[in-house]
Write a structure and sequence with these properties.
prephenate dehydratase activity, binds 3-phenylpyruvic acid, amino-acid biosynthesis, EC 4.2.1.51, 278 residues, aromatic amino acid biosynthesis, alpha/beta, lyase
């Protein structure tokens, strides 16, 4: 039985992505709640998959407006055994969930940092003096919303239904085309043939042109990158790990040869997975 770790409690966008994954990968199976394993933070969900407590973890990795989810990128780099099995892109539309009758009655608003950031202009305009509290997930604050009529949370419409709480306004995200990419991480190689691959590497020395060399390997072989992002190595200021997405499967011969060449011009090269995007 496939078990799935995700950022909880129930009603998060990660849970919606996890349910979509189960439906796509096991269309014949009936929905079984015991497959769904909520964790309070993204690193804990990833760790559960790494330790083998669950089969896969479904975690957000990038938002179309806010960019990379740094916790996911950092955990992936540190992971010894996890591979990206699949990517899932989901549209995200946020609701303001509260028992308050008017916006004027709201004193505090809770959400995940991505939720607050994706509604920043709306908040500045409609709730300029309200205290914003960043929490581990969009649904974390809903138990407080249930008790206190001056509290609101930014979460999904589905979350409002699950907790039987009213929506005062929807949608409140600043950009209508707000999307988040989620990754399915597991200890085995993906079963379906990939179309995309992800790599991460650190550089040998902090010297002029160090990043150009790996990029030239890809450019010379006409290999298209669909994303590049850097994160600090945490060793010393100014040293970075680069995360790169490639529009090619890992078993493409041209790409396999590029990987050999990349070994020579990087310090530590990690293949994070070769997978399909749904
Ligand atoms: O907190 C959630 O619901 C998540 O799954 C993380 C998140 C938050 C905001 C947008 C997309 C994902």
């Amino acid at each position: 039985m496939t078990t799935v770790a995700y950022l909880g409690p129930a009603g998060t966008y990660s849970e919606m992505a996890a349910l979509q994954y189960l439906q796509l990968s096991h269309p014949d199976l009936e929905h079984d709640p015991s497959r769904m394993c909520p964790y309070p933070t993204i690193p804990q969900a990833i760790n559960a998959a790494e330790q083998g407590h669950v089969d896969v973890a479904v975690v957000p990795v990038e938002n179309s407006i806010q960019g990379g989810v740094t916790m996911t990128l950092d955990s992936l780099w540190q992971s010894e055994s996890l591979q990206i099995q699949q990517a899932i892109v989901m549209p995200i539309a946020h609701a303001l969930i509260t028992r308050a009758q008017n916006l004027d009655d709201i004193k505090v608003v809770y959400s995940h940092p991505q939720g607050l950031a994706q509604c920043q202009q709306w908040l500045d305009h409609h709730l300029p003096t309200v205290q914003q509290i960043a929490s581990d997930s969009t649904t974390y604050g809903l138990h407080i919303v249930a008790k206190d009529v001056t509290v609101a949370a930014i979460a999904s419409q589905r979350a409002a239904e699950i907790y039987y709480l009213p929506i005062l306004q929807y949608p409140i995200n600043d950009q209508p085309d707000n999307c988040t990419r989620f990754l399915v991480l597991g200890r085995t190689s993906p079963t379906t043939r990939g179309t995309h691959s992800s790599l991460a590497f650190s550089l040998k020395r902090n010297m002029p042109g160090a990043l150009v060399k790996p990029l030239l390997v890809l450019a010379d072989r006409q290999i298209n990158m669909s994303r590049i992002e850097s994160r600090p190595t945490k060793r010393s200021l100014g040293e970075y790990i680069f995360f790169i997405d490639i529009e090619a499967p890992i078993d493409d011969p041209n790409f396999s040869e590029a990987l050999q060449e990349l070994q020579a011009v990087t310090e530590n090269l990690k293949i994070l997975g070769s997978y399909a995007i749904t």
